Amino acid sequence: MSALARTAELTQAAVLAGPAPSDPTLSSFGRDPWWLIGGKVLVIFVFLVLTVLMSMWVERRVIGRMQLRVGPNRCGPFGLLQGLADGIKLALKEDIVPRQVDKVVFVLAPIMSAVPAFISFAIIPFGPTVSVFGHHTALQGTDLPVAVLLVLAMSSMGVYGIVLAGWSSMSPYSLLGGLRSSAQVISYEIAMGLSFVAVFLFAGTMSTTGIVNAQADKWFVVLLLPSFLVYVITMMGESNRIPFDLPEGEGELVGGFHTEYSSLKFAMFFLAEYINLATLSALATTLFLGGWRAPAPISTFWEGANHGWWPVLWFMVKLWAFIFFFIWLRGSLPRVRYDQLMKLGWKVLMPFSLGWILLVATIRALRNEGLAMNRIMLYSAIAIGVVLLVTVLWETLRGGKDKKIVPDPAQDRPTDAVGGSSAGGFPVPPMDAPHYHGGPVAAVPRRQTEASRKEVVQNGIH
């Protein structure tokens, strides 16, 4: 009788719920029972952890293949358990806390980086409305009228963890890494937010479910290709990965903001980086690639492609395509200079995004007035041509390059550690001074060999 009663209850709940709509809306959320909400949170958490482990394995295998080496192949079949082994190793390592750090902030900084990364994924839609134990629910943690802005807010909160980690470490390398991160995020988050404006204008909402529903006929990557390209560049800047990994900069800052971290604290920074990788990829899928909707050839010939649990497969394919794109860039491009990073963000991406927003807003206004699309495209082409012509004329009149300051040969230029001129004309204090970092350093003759100069400097420092 108990089994029959339970079956009757489930049947009654399914009847009360009615037929499951394929496209959830903002009003679909907030009605789930507590156990279903908790299950969604648990599934998102487990999904992110597994995605981090798989991303690490895929990254090592792909870059290993690109560099003609094997990659991880010892822990588990094909090295699949290498990420798990690394996590266990980090958990069992000695947790070293330097004596001079601000311990409270030093401990809280990794948490402030990892927690916002988990929260951001709550508004990402995995699929349409499905039936789970008789309850119709959307395959999404939750949704908000300003859901996309939540991702930007959590990204800004995550930067506080990096900045505070650099400040609390009481190390010059860590402090420089934290300052670089704050400047980088400010520069690229503005351009990223501007790339979203055109999507909001076309979708008419900031809700992620509404944006996915607005792409039922045509994806925004086709209609708003310039916004998509700007977002792809800015998401590389937001993720602090090559070619924009200036906050770490192993070549000049040892490890950047996490130089003084070890064990689980370092693992939390590592976790936050790869979760942000997945979040940025999922957000790109949601805003520009139709979210969980199937590609045009599949959805055209198969009516059930966007119903049930199949959309989860399309979402995962798009998500991993973006993650592979991140990995491919890391194995292909070198790290850019810091001045190039700032110039790209402030002088290229931001003005371009503002001009594109004005053009999109004008086209939408003209369409609302009933103007024909052919005339709109003609006016847009004329406006773009005028802007390009003015830009070419401006660059021609000013010589096509920035004005350079020619150094005076007669002026005594500062020398570097080995007695030569500083590279690029940047002032570098001489290393053959009587004292360096508070300790005596022997004078280095200018015509010594390279090996003897390095030996003298190292002996003086140590």
TrEMBL record:
- Biased composition range(s): Basic and acidic residues: 404-415, 447-456
Instruction: Give the residue ranges for region: Disordered.
Output: 404-462
User: Under which name does UniProt file this protein?
Assistant: NADH-quinone oxidoreductase subunit H
Catalytic activity reads: a quinone + NADH + 5 H(+)(in) = a quinol + NAD(+) + 4 H(+)(out)
Note the Pfam families from the entry.
NADHdh (PF00146)
Topological relation to the membrane, as annotated: Multi-pass membrane protein
Keyword terms of this UniProt record: Cell membrane, Membrane, NAD, Quinone, Translocase, Transmembrane, Transmembrane helix, Ubiquinone
GO cellular component annotations, sorted alphabetically? plasma membrane
What's the domain of life for this entry?
Answer: Bacteria
Matching InterPro entries, A to Z? Answer: NADH_UbQ_OxRdtase_su1/FPO, NADH_UbQ_OxRdtase_su1_CS
- Could you say which protein family the record assigns here? Belongs to the complex I subunit 1 family.
Gene that this sequence comes from = nuoH
UniProt-listed Enzyme Commission number(s): 7.1.1.-
**Protein purpose:** NDH-1 shuttles electrons from NADH, via FMN and iron-sulfur (Fe-S) centers, to quinones in the respiratory chain. The immediate electron acceptor for the enzyme in this species is believed to be ubiquinone. Couples the redox reaction to proton translocation (for every two electrons transferred, four hydrogen ions are translocated across the cytoplasmic membrane), and thus conserves the redox energy in a proton gradient. This subunit may bind ubiquinone.
Any one GO biological process: aerobic respiration
List the transmembrane segments: 34-58, 104-126, 146-167, 188-207, 219-237, 266-289, 309-328, 348-366, 372-394
GO molecular function, a single term = quinone binding
NCBIfam families recorded: PRK06076.1-2, PRK06076.1-4
User: Where does the record say this protein resides?
Assistant: Cell membrane; Membrane
Q: Subunit comment for this entry?
A: NDH-1 is composed of 14 different subunits. Subunits NuoA, H, J, K, L, M, N constitute the membrane sector of the complex.
